[in-house]
Design a protein that fits this description.
Strand content: 15-25%
Structural class: alpha/beta
Distance between the termini: 25 Å
Shape: globular
Helix content: 40-55%
Bound molecules: NADP nicotinamide-adenine-dinucleotide phosphate
Number of helices: 14
Strand order of the largest sheet: 4-3-5-15-14-6-7-13-10-12-11
Number of strands: 17
């Protein structure tokens, strides 16, 4: 019998064998990649006596054409009720009331972690010489920073008021006709993000957490993020983790927490990727870093993502690419980003064996050069298959 996933008062997910999981098919190529990813997830789950009771919920173009609403309240309610869900890409309505449906979902459920693991699959075309050294998990803060949306447009009465206040009260010489954005970075927001990253490192046997920041320049925002991180480790997590300065870089069997400046990090993830393991960072740095890293291991057709609130248990897992509308309905695209988001979801549910089976099937299929067009055009001697054929091959191997 299908049941809800619930969260116990002590913060442990209770996952039945037949959980109800809401999904958004997604716009554009969602019609191609969703069925492909779903059949692979179902096959892997069935191997371990599990069955997902998929519950379709609407968002994006499909929702708009059927209900006149881009993000119906029932969809939000379903994610609230069933805790965990998955989604394909969504069109961002241009000129509509909602800036981005993805941001709206994250805000509504306070999904403060954007989880982006980045690893290489043997055989995937990569622009770097040693892609096998890339195996990082990025924890990007999802609710604060310049992404909070606190901006005023140049020349508006709001801008004049804010700029006037800053000139008068702070003596800041803001130029006439400036766009102004506010960058809030809170202690609470920083600590819960870094706490989640350190816990993840402990639970997954990772050796370090690197806090990436621009604290040398932005002292009271990004610099504070760094300081709060070390404070948290010292005060709350010293049994499992230790800051660099508190152990001179020798952590023993604890997770080492260190920090690097954002600009040099973008060089070092290229030149010495094996020195990075789990990364904890703020919204904007995390945005740049996750896409730059994804490029090292084969690009957006394969990069998965998850948005999680570890306290409430809520999580929405999602393909990180867009709707690629020119390819919609052609059964051509790579379903791996959505499928690997499903793998992240399985791991979050505790279905680690089924998750590992999907990963193993992907590894061997790509290594045998059976791939969709995006990889086939970059690989010599590849056999190009359709999206659905790629999924069928994965199922056969599982
Ligand atoms: P996009 O949809 O990600 O597509 C850009 C290019 O990336 C495609 O033309 C294709 O490259 C490649 N690509 C994307 N997904 C792929 C896949 N599954 N397999 C293989 N290749 C893939 O970006 P966009 O064209 O800038 O955005 C289109 C729409 O998506 C916009 O409305 C945007 O707002 C939305 N969007 C949504 C999300 C989300 O929901 N998470 C994220 C980003 C964008 P080639 O043409 O070179 O083959």
């Amino acid at each position: 019998m299908s049941e809800r996933i619930t969260m116990s008062p002590d913060g442990v997910l209770a996952v039945p064998d037949e959980p109800i999981i809401p999904y958004i098919e997604g716009d554009g190529i969602g019609v191609d990649i969703w069925p492909a990813a779903q059949v692979v997830m179902d096959t892997a789950a069935a191997k371990y006596g599990k069955k997902i009771a998929w519950k379709e919920v609407l968002a994006g173009e499909k929702a708009f054409s059927m209900t006149g609403d881009w993000l119906p309240e029932e969809t939000l309610e379903a994610f609230r009720t069933y805790l965990i869900g998955i989604k394909g890409p969504l069109t961002t309505p241009i000129g509509g009331g909602i800036r981005s449906l993805n941001v709206a979902l994250r805000k509504a459920l306070d999904l403060y972690v954007c989880l982006r693991p980045v690893r290489w699959f043997k055989g995937v075309p990569s622009p770097v010489r040693h892609p096998e050294k890339v195996d990082m998990v990025i924890f990007r803060e999802n609710t604060e920073d310049v992404y909070a949306g606190y901006e005023v447009q140049a020349g508006t009465p709001e801008e004049k008021k804010l700029a006037g206040f800053l000139r008068e009260e702070f003596g800041w010489p803001i130029r006439e006709n400036s766009g102004i954005g506010i960058k809030p970075i809170s202690e609470e927001g920083s600590k819960r993000l870094i706490r989640a990253a350190v816990r993840y490192a402990v639970e997954h046997g990772r050796s370090s957490v690197t806090m990436v920041h621009k604290g040398n320049i932005q002292k009271y925002t990004e610099g504070a993020f760094r300081s709060w991180g070390y404070e948290l480790v010292r005060e709350e997590m010293s049994d499992v983790a230790v800051g660099w300065d508190d152990c001179s870089g020798v952590p023993g069997n604890r997770v080492l927490v260190k920090d690097t400046i954002a600009d040099i990090t973008l060089q070092q993830v290229l030149t010495r990727p094996d020195e990075f393991d789990v990364i904890a960072t703020m919204n904007l740095n995390g945005d740049y870093l996750s896409d730059a890293l994804a490029a090292q291991v084969g690009g957006i057709g394969i990069a998965p993502g998850g948005n999680i609130n570890y306290e409430t248990g809520h999580g929405i897992f999602e393909a990180t690419h867009g709707t690629a509308p020119k390819y919609a309905g052609q059964d051509k695209m790579n379903p791996s980003s959505l499928l690997l988001s499903g793998v992240l979801m399985f791991e979050y549910l505790g279905w680690t064996e089924a998750a590992a089976d999907i990963v193993a099937a992907l590894e061997s299929t790509i290594a045998d050069k059976i791939v969709t067009y995006d990889f086939a055009r970059l690989m010599e001697g590849a056999r190009e298959v359709r999206c659905s054929e790629f999924a069928a091959e994965l199922c056969r191997r599982i």
